[in-house]
Amino acid sequence: MREKKRRKKGIYRGLLAGGLALCLFGGGFAAVNRYVFAAAHDKPVKLQASWQEPAAAAPQAVGYTKADYKVQVDPMYHASNSNAVSAEEAAEIGARYLWEVFGVDLKGCTLYMYYFMDPSRAIGYWYGDVITEGGDRHKAPYRFGIEAVSGEPESIIRQDFPAEGKETILFKEEKIEEYYRANSDEYNELAKTYARKLLSVEPVKAEFLTTGALLAPGYDYEMPEGAVMTMEPEEKTADPDVILVPWGEEIPASYVYITILVTDAGGNQVQVEIDRSDKSLVSLSKQYKGVDYDPNSVG
Known about the structure:
mainly beta
């Protein structure tokens, strides 16, 4: 049995599907709770993708009725562009997408809005965290991103959290990636279906990109020498005892994710993250042409 060691809580909780959203503030935060492990290899992730300016307007959101939710704007991250939609408008656009994509009812919730200017594209975004009644922003069950001027959706995520007592899955990145790289047809078709919720036209291509995992409680990777941490702990609580597993070895995970890159006829691309256990949608995130993401620059 492995020795239990002390380790700071919340440094990361699993793998970010490679090239997915750029953490909480950067070109989309799909899978923000699966932090970037490319840093362990000390190299940037290249986003091999493009996105033409979308023509679609806000979603129709069939059956949607505006819920009684509140909007709170972070005073440190307010819109700096006079052409940007207001935080309240962005929140309502996000609310409609949450309904359309995940069927979320926001009654009694607070949408915590904050603005960010992406320096790589000189485009501003409104991001929103869904805070349930009596809940904690850092445990937001859903998050979304909206292009601030156009009001177009940029990313949306169902945020999972490790849970005590949940059946675990043994995760070994290299082994699982090798399997799904050759056996991803089912997920490719699912991803096309999910991507239609964000793409303006019919998807024509889907290909396996990577896998990720949300580690089970009490387990963590022992990072290799020279690795760079990309995120600080979310909570300033006492450090728990955890079992450290050498990097790359099999480790218990609460969730395992498959990430597929979907392309439409116009060359627009969306990364689609799918829960392997029940094949449900976890996140959608637009990808952009010519963006190099260096995980070592985040945090």
